[in-house]
Write a structure and sequence with these properties.
Blueprint lengths: L13 H13 L4 H15 L49
């Protein structure tokens, strides 16, 4: 492997840097190692090595989500979800 001697300088939000450093440290990588891996993979695939999407997380309308039940934790089921075959959801809505 060639010696890494070229420098890249980037400005990021301190919290983002710290969180990313923690994630990569878990895998035994420095941020420099992670950035190098990102660049090598970008060259390998001919672009960004991941899909770009507006939002990878599902969005929920709070008005359609069941209220939180402290006995079971947070609920993410839509309030209008109903299964005619059983009464499992009826016990969640009070």
């Amino acid at each position: 492997m060639a010696t890494r001697s070229a420098e890249i300088k980037a400005y990021v939000v301190p919290d983002v840097k710290a969180q990313a450093a923690d994630i990569y440290a878990h895998w035994g990588m420095s941020l420099s190692d992670a950035i190098n891996a990102f660049l090598v993979k970008s060259i390998d695939v001919g672009g960004l090595p991941f899909d770009m999407r507006v939002s990878a997380r599902p969005r929920y309308n709070p008005a359609t989500v069941l209220p939180v039940d402290p006995r079971w934790g947070s609920s993410i089921l839509p309030a209008d979800m109903n299964d005619d075959e059983d009464d499992i959801y009826a016990q969640l809505v009070r």
